[in-house]
Amino acid sequence: MNVSCECQNVVFKTPLAKPLALYICHCNECKRQSSSAFGASAIFPRFPLPCPEFLAVYTRPTASGHTVNCYFCKTCGTRLIHSTPGKSVVSVKGGCIEGLDWKMAKHIWVKRAMVPIPEGAEVVKEEPDFDPYICRTTDLLENGKMDAGAA
Asked: A Gene Ontology MF term for this entry (predicted)?
């Protein structure tokens, strides 16, 4: 999948043809960083940072007590990637990705939602369990479906 910031200084492809998961997040942090009612995050196996010369990082604590590194374009300020130290997955901001299948999205932190959740959507009241995606990344590596350098 193709990913780019607004000014096109940061352009890259995701390590998989589709994300392991897609979240529409209604937490306060995502609302602030997106300047909207929610944020969109596509979960992928960890990969080397693209275009590091064009990226800056903002590090902040999460509601669950972890630390997250938020990478954004130094030129236009577009938030692109979030990573948590020690985790084998990263979050690529959904609005920067071409061709996402939004039907697969799960709404999380819905207890803080400012907009109605679509009827029939899968929801999680707070933070989801990332363990299934960490296991999926391990399976992809072991079966040769992903480059070990990406993890």
From this structure: carbon-sulfur lyase activity
CA-based torsion, 138, 142, 143, 148: positive or negative: positive
Catalogue all structural domains in the chain, each as residue range(s) with its CATH number.
Answer: 2-143 (3.90.1590.10)
**Sheet containing 55-61: which strands, arranged edge to edge?**
55-61, 67-73, 79-83, 89-93, 39-45, 21-25, 106-108, 122-124
CA distance 55 to 3: 14
pTM of the model as a whole:
0.73
Each residue's pLDDT tens digit, 62-107: 877 889 999 999 999 999 999 999 889 999 999 999 999 888 888 8
Q: Report the alpha-carbon distance of residue 45 to residue 90 in Å, rounded.
A: 6
What value, to the nearest 5°, has the Cα angle with vertex 36 and ends 32 and 38?
85
Task: Report pLDDT digits (tens) over 106-141.
Answer: 888 877 777 777 787 777 777 766 565 555 555 555
Strands 21-25 and 106-108, how do they pair? parallel
Q: Is 145 exposed, middle or buried (0-12, 13-18, 19+ CB in 10 A)?
A: exposed
CA atoms of 125 and 110, how far apart (whole Å): 5
